[in-house]
Amino acid sequence: MSDFRKIVRANMKSLVDWFGCYDAVAETFNARWGGGASKGTVSKKVSGNLDWTVADVIALEDASGRYPVTRMLARRLERSPALAGGSLLQDGCSIAKESGEAISAILAADQSTCADEKAQAISEVDEALFALRQARSRLEASMSPGASR
Question: Which of 8, 44, 102, 131 suits a disulfide with 49, CB 3.0-4.6 Å?
Fold first, then answer.
């Protein structure tokens, strides 16, 4: 299994290098999330003495327009196998439930200026996508040779 912490550190170091200096990275954090970050904090994170936070990843990826950590995490999800238990009927029910919740959250986010509503909609869409991926994995597994139909 890969050491995801090392991979995240390498990706984040690459993003920090893109910014050119620790001061620029600290100012990016401060502009996005409020004060508190310094080049010393960034230095400790780059060296591995402190871990990167999700907020750090979001701030640097959004500011640079590059998304290496997010892509790595997405690939991790795509490789997840279908659950051993369950059935296609249960998958269908889950898809209907999660999709309905996603639609409701999207409509609420559209009518709101609140970032929390938009974040909730993103979360609900992700849950619907996960339900769809589970069903697809189960369908693909049922088509493999030797699978019971």
Answer: 44
pLDDT band for position 1 (50/70/90)?
very low
Cα–Cα distance for residue pair 115/95, rounded to 1 Å: 25
* SS3 per-residue string spanning the chain: CCCHHHHHHHHHHHHHHHHCCHHHHHHHHHHHHCCCCCHHHHHHHHHCCCCCCHHHHHHHHHHHCCCHHHHHHHHHHHCCCCCCCCCHHHHHHHHHHHHHHHHHHHHHHHCCCCHHHHHHHHHHHHHHHHHHHHHHHHHHHHHCCCCCC
Place of tokens 């994170």: 45
| Tokens linked to 137 | 């994995």
On whether the CB atoms of residues 42 and 25 are closer than 8 A, the answer is yes
> How far apart are alpha carbons 52 and 90 in whole angstroms?
37
